[in-house]
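Fold it.
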Amino acid sequence: MTLREKIFKTFVVTIREINTHGGPKEFFEKYPVGGLYYGEEDVLRDENGLEMGTQFDYEKLCECKKYSKKKLLVCADSAKIRGQVTPIYTQRSIGGSLSDEDAYNFGKIIGMQMNDKGIDWVLQPSIDMCLDPLMYLMAISDDPKIIARLYRQAVRGIQDQGVCATVKHFPGLGTYFVNMHIAPGSNKLSYDEWMKTYGYTYKEMFKEGVMSVMTTHTTLKSYDSEGDNGYYPTATFSKKLTTDLLKGELGFEGAVVTDALIMGGMATGDLVAETVQAFKAGADLLLWPPVEAAEAIERAILDGEIPMSRLDDALSRIEKMESFRNKALAEKAYDTPDAEWADSESQRIAGNGMCLLRNDIGLLPLSKEKYQKVLIVDVTDEDAKSSGLICDELKARGIFAEVKRDIYDVPSRVCWQADIDRLAADYDLVLFNVNAFFVAEWSVPHMLIWASHLFDKKKKLIINHGSPYFAPEYFPEDPTIVETNCRPSAATVKALVDRLFGEKEFTGSSLLTKKQ
C-alpha cells in the first residue's frame, strides 16, 4: 500500500461524506477508505433524494461494498434483523435482571443483528456508570463489579457471533452533567477513584478480549491536566489519555476508535486539524472524518510531526480486528440470524429487568374490579407514545382508561388544585407515566411532576422508564413506583401491564445499589 492508502485505512466515513464527493462509484475511485458507518433509521435526504446524514438503506450499503476496491470494515451502533418486528432496547434491562444469561443473550442479539446486514463491527456496549444524578446516559449500574460482570458477558455474546465489539465511552461518562454531544464532558473522579471504577471495568473488558475501545470528548483532569487557558484536552485529543493510559497503563491491545468527529464536545470549526490531532493522540480508527484530513496526516508524517510508528501501530491494531472478523466468516463461526428468537428473547430480557421499586401500601397488583377507571398522566417527551400504549393495554383488559397531558387547555388540564380535585374524584387510579433521560430533563412537562405530589398517594402509581435517579430525586415519598429499566415499546409495555396485574412477577432490581 502507498502511504496515502495506509492513512485512508484508518478512516470510517459516513454516507454524507460519500454523497458530497460524487456518490459511491466516484467516491471509492478517489478515496480508498477502510471503513464505513451504517445506520438505518430516520434517513435524512436532500432535495435530490441523496442521504445527507449518517443513515441509509441496506441496498445503498451493498452498493458501497460493490464499488469499494477493498473489503470495507463496516460498523454500526445498531441495526435490525430483517423480519424483526422492533429492536427492543434492553441494555438497562440487564442491569435490572442482573442475569449473566440475559447479558450474554443481549450481546448475542446484537451480533445476530450485525451479521444479518453484513456489519463487521458494532459500537456497543456502553459501559458507563450511574455516578451523578444529573448525568445524561443510560448506564446499567453504579457498581463497577456489576458492570464488569454483565458487560463481559455482553461482549462475549457479541464476539461469539464473530462480530467485533466496542466498549465506550473512555474515559467514562457518568460523573458530570454536560452531554459531550453538545460540549466537552468531564470525568470528575480522582485518579485513584477512577482506577477503582472505570479503570477496573475497562481492564475486565480487556480480559474478555474486546476488539475495540471508543474514546470520547471527555476530559480526565486527574490524569491529564495539561490544559491551555483553562481548557483541558478531551480523550479525543489527549495522547496521555489515549496512548499513555489506555494503551499503556491499562494495556489495551485492540483498536481505538474516536467518537464521532463532528460532535459539539470537540468541534472547533476545523475538522481537518481535529482529525489530525485525534490520530496523533493515538486513535487507530477515525469516526466520521473529512477525507481531506488524509492529506494533512500524510504531510504531518512526511514532515516528522507524526512518527511513522504511529501509523504502523494503528494498522496493526486494525489488522487484528479484520483477522478476527475474517476468521469467523471463513469458519462460519456464528449463528444464523433469527428474528423471531431475537424478538422473543429481547422481550423476555426486558420483562426480567422490570423493578417494583416500592409497593409500600400494597397497591399492586391491580385488579379490574377495584380500578375500573384509570387516568394516565403523560409526563414524557415522546408525544404520549408509551402512555397511549399503556392506555391500549388497559382497555384490552376491559378498563376505562384515558391519557391527559396538556397543562393549559381546560378540558384536559391536570396541573391546578381545582383540576386535581376533580380528577381525583373521577378516577380510581392515577398513573403518572414518566420518561426522562436524566433528572434535570425539563423537556418533560415539569408542571405535571409538581401536580403529581398533590394527588392522593393511595390511588397513585408512578411508572418510570428513564433515569434511575428520577424516583429518589423527584418522588422520595411516593409509596408505589415501578422502574421499567428499558425504553418503552409495544412489547415492553405489554410486559409491564402484565406485571401490574400480577399476571407475571416483578423480578428486577433498581439500577442504583447505593442509598441515595
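The radius of gyration is 24 Å.
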